[in-house]
Amino acid sequence: MIPEKQPYSNLIETIGSLLQQGRQQAAQAVNTILVQTYWTIGQHIVEFEQDGNEKAEYGSQLFERLSKDLTNAYGKGFSRSNLLYMRKMYVSFPISETVSHLLTWSHYFEILKADSELEISFYTKQCQLERWSVRELKRQMRSSLFERLALSKDKEGVLKLAREGHIVAAPEDLIKDPFVLDFLNIPEQHQYLENELEEKIISNLQRFIMEMGKGFAFIGRQYRMSIGGKHFYLDLLFYHRILKCFVLVDLKRGEIDHQDVGQMNLYLNYFKKEEATEGDNEPIGIILGAHKNHILVEYATDSITNKVLLSKYQLYLPDKKTLQNQLNKLLE
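^ that's the sequence the OP posted. Answer follows.
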């Protein structure tokens, strides 16, 4: 039998795929070389300073003069701020092999704005784990993600978080306190309803999932459960591919109370018996409210065997300085 000739359209598709792959590899190679070059420039600047040449020859004007001379000789890319961050990159990552070539210089430029070595280490690792874009990195840093996660841990937990990033290995790892939903653009004093909050989240679902963290797959909203002849509706339903379980999310406009905990416990029991299939772990419930009464929550969840997690959300960026002060006290 004579084999059919390859369609011309397949040839075009194959060439296009190869071209796209080649361009991606070329861009990655250029990025790797650029990041390594900037690290080496930072090394030379630090060594120049340590030899005493900076004070002897240029005083405090080293970066201004370097910026001017390098720009005149080689063009753009040598602003004073760029040079300062090249230096900080070398100081923060003195071993060349610890520089991740999965990240671009634009990533490092943002990461190096962090105030502490713990933050720099965390955001570098988290960018690799989550494959954040530069835009998402900026949002997570503005929302003080490191501090929000760190304040739920002990001192050793904070250090581990900085070394390894935020790894979801247990239900408790799903919680941030608070969750920051600034991207919903709801004014802080606006008297919104729960269904309005839900509508805003659905309209910004991708960003909500990014705030929730890695591993969430959206299943549906207002998920109906028929229990004892009555219908109940869950606000948001997810499946977590890492923990291999359903995650039930209930939204509360005001304060979380004991009735909300009892209702979520009912939903979890239903999911264990009616929805979970072989291979699924027990479902997890997350109640998000604008406020929570810690004492009431403690008593309401004390004897519950299901995993019910409670957290606040807020509609504006947290005060980073306040969070940093709280974290410093924890570390001390």
